[in-house]
Each structure stands twice: as C-alpha cells, then as structure tokens.
Amino acid sequence: MPSALPIADPAPADGLITPASGAGDVPFGVYVHVPFCRVRCGYCDFNTYTASELRGVRRDDYAGHAVREIAWAAEVLDRSGVPRRPVSTVFFGGGTPTMLPASDLVMILRAIHDTWGILPGAEVTTEANPDSVDGSSLETLRAGGFTRVSYGMQSAVPQVLATLDRTHDPERVPLVVDLAKQQGLDVSLDLIYSTPGESLDDWRTSLDAALACEPDHVSAYSLIVEDGTAMGRMVARGELPAPDDDLAADMYELADQVLGDAGYSWYEVSNWARGEEHASRHNLSYWKGHDWWGVGPGAHSAVAGTRWWNVKHPAAYANRVLAGESPAAGRETLDDETRYVERVLLAARVRGELATAELDREARGRVAGLIARGLVDGSAAVRGHIDLTLQGRLLADAVVRELLD
Description:
It is a single chain. By secondary structure, this protein is an alpha/beta fold. It has 15 helices and 14 strands. A hairpin with a 2-residue loop joins strand 10 (about 300-305) and strand 11 (about 305-310).
C-alpha cells in the first residue's frame, strides 16, 4: 500500500499561502504525479493504483483533472502575491506516466505552458517503463515538447526483476533507448541494487547492460524494504533475505567504478551523468531548494516557504479539483531552523552545492575532522564547498548528522 501522508496543519480550502521573504527569487518547476501502474511492484510504497484500486474515478479523466489543478494553482499563487515565473523544469513521475496516452501528457504540458510559460531550453522529463512506450508515443512526446525520458530499467537479470515484480522484458531496454534517441530525447536509466538474492555479479551484469545502451544519465538506488509493502512482509516472514548493508556498499563502489570508467561523473550521491548538461535539472531543483508546484494525487509542493501535499486517492483528488477547492491534505510553513537543516541535508548530497560559508560555526568546526576521516574532500573544502568522497557518499547520512549535531 502507498505510504501515509505526513501529519501537519490542515490546508485551507482556498489554498492561499503567505509568501516568505524573498519569494520568487528562485527557479520554479512543476511536478506532475500520474498515479497509475499496470501492476503494483512488491517493493513500492509510492502513491500508485492499479485499475482495480481506482474506485470512483476513471484513468481517462485524469488529464482533465490535472489541467484544472494547474489553472487553479495559477490563480492561488496570483492571489497569494507570489510572482509568476516561467517554468524551468517539468517532471512527470508516478506511477507510470506513460500508462496515459502520450497525447494526454502533451495536453497537461501545454496547460503548464499556457499558464506559466516554459523557459527556452527547459528540461521536460517523463518516467516510463520499457514496455509502456513505442516509437509513435515517443514521437508524440517529442513533438509536444518533452526533452527527456527516464526508463525504469531496474535490472537486466530476470530473477532480480522477478523478485522486484517488474514485468518488462530486459531485452526491450536497448530497443526503447534507441527509439528515444531517434527522437532526439535525452535518456536516463534507473537501476536498483541490493535486491534480496542479488549477487555482485548480477549487479555487474545490470551495469554492463545499462552502459551498452549508452544512456546520457544513470541513477542507481539502493533498495529500501519499506514497512507495509508486499516485500516488507516477505522479509519479515523470512521468505526473502533482508538486504545486506556490506554487499550494498560493495555494489555502490562497483557502480561508481564502472560508471566512472565509462565516462560518467557523479553529481549527486545516487546519480551519474555523461557531462554536466545531462544531469537531471529537475531533481537538482529539489536538492537546491527551488520552488515547485506538485500536480496530482499525493503530489508534494514547495513554494515561497510553504510546503503541502495533496490527498492521495485519485477519486478524492478529482472531487476536490472539480469543486474548485484545494486538493491539499496538509501543509507546513518552514521556519529558519528547518530551512537550514534541509539545506544541509539535501545540498550535501550534491557535488559542489553546499558552501562551507553556509554552515553554522559549530558545523564549520567539524569539517576538518570529516576531512581527516576521509569523508569530505579536502581540496574542495579549501575551495569553499563540501564534496563527499566515495567513502563519504557511502556514509552520507552520518556526515549530515555530524554537520547538524
């Protein structure tokens, strides 16, 4: 089942916010959550729904509901006194956005353009499964303004895919990568490692298969077994082994070596790109603390110092937007201390993003010790920013905790 929403203040029906000082000074992006999947993967606790779980709403109506929220969002920001800014990045995530017809995704993107404007050269991404696109749909997406596709490859090893409940044929990945390249789209491949039962050789097979496709970008995420998921229950019952932390560290080190040798540079703990121009600008906007509006059921937003999240079920979401009410379930206003903590937490993961001058006095005093332990790059610190070493990336959470203690 999808994870629970955070507990916070109720969101007002009118959606109005009080902008913090400096509102409108950072780039603005849009995230569109498309909450539909053909099957629910056993490890997933994202806000997604199969056809049998929709109850009271049709998938065919979703694009129209999203367009209504976009129009309502612009009105709310105008009434809140938040300056309109053209959109610098758009990301369609899920779920599987390409469960919708490509024309529906283009319709939503057009509404974003007509409402806020989209900057020239903006990055517009959709996630996709290898079996949810073809040449025709990719052509429609490219003609409609999409610039990038992120495929959920996860693994090239059939038994690993089976453990993850992934249904695509791994042999289809090179085909759809090539189809996207033919349309001039940037291509990212998302991989998961440390799946129960996955060996280091299995992981090497997946890395080699991904690199053989020559993508522009690779993401590699360590599997987290979440409570409440089918996989979580299987691990609790002893039917699957729990992921091994030491093996996961070996897998990360292998990924960094193999990707580095192939010309990919890490720019965030779990992300490598073939050149700075291929980094995910939308994901960087989260790590850098930019503003974004999240459209769709369960989507999170952060604008002008206020953060909120929408109701989760597509039927509840549809009822709210059709009634002209805020679809938000809860919200919070970020104080200076929370902003500082989140800035360190997120920016420390990104190469060259966190300046030592941003740290408070106590944190700056701990940097030398982190350098001595091989967790922070000393040369980068001399240049004025915090860069994690390979060991530091493996222990990124511990580094952040030390900087914030």
